[in-house]
Fold this sequence. Notes:
By secondary structure, the chain is α+β, with helices and mostly antiparallel strands. It has a single domain, classed as 2-Layer Sandwich (Beta Polymerase, domain 2), CATH 3.30.460. The protein contains 5 helices and 6 strands; from the N terminus they run αββαβββααβα. β3 (63-65) and β4 (72-76) form a beta hairpin.
Amino acid sequence: MLEAAEAASSKKADRIAILDVSELLVITDHFLICSGSNERQVRTIAEEVEKRLLEQHRVKPFRREGEREGRWILLDYVDFVVHVFGPEERDYYDLERLWADAPRVPYHENGAIGSDREERDEPAAAEAT
């Protein structure tokens, strides 16, 4: 999953978020959510994620949806699902709000992750001020 986030970041994906839905769903453990600024970038991000995971881990998505339209592409890798949105679709569907009970896995552009809940709550506190 981290490799998918790094691949998305390498193509300038915006607002990368990783949600741990393992306690809420039985069909997958994590959602990787990110955005592109237009349909071309959405497709490019999804293609890079697929390419990187195939090259590095020899895995292909079990299912793909939305490639033709390029506004919301879903790549289902079973253990995790990658959602690549256009900006309007990201705001409209707002998966982070829909799955607000799911803990966020902190992800930083340098690829570092962590699970410390305090680290997760800091940005929200900073936004409130």
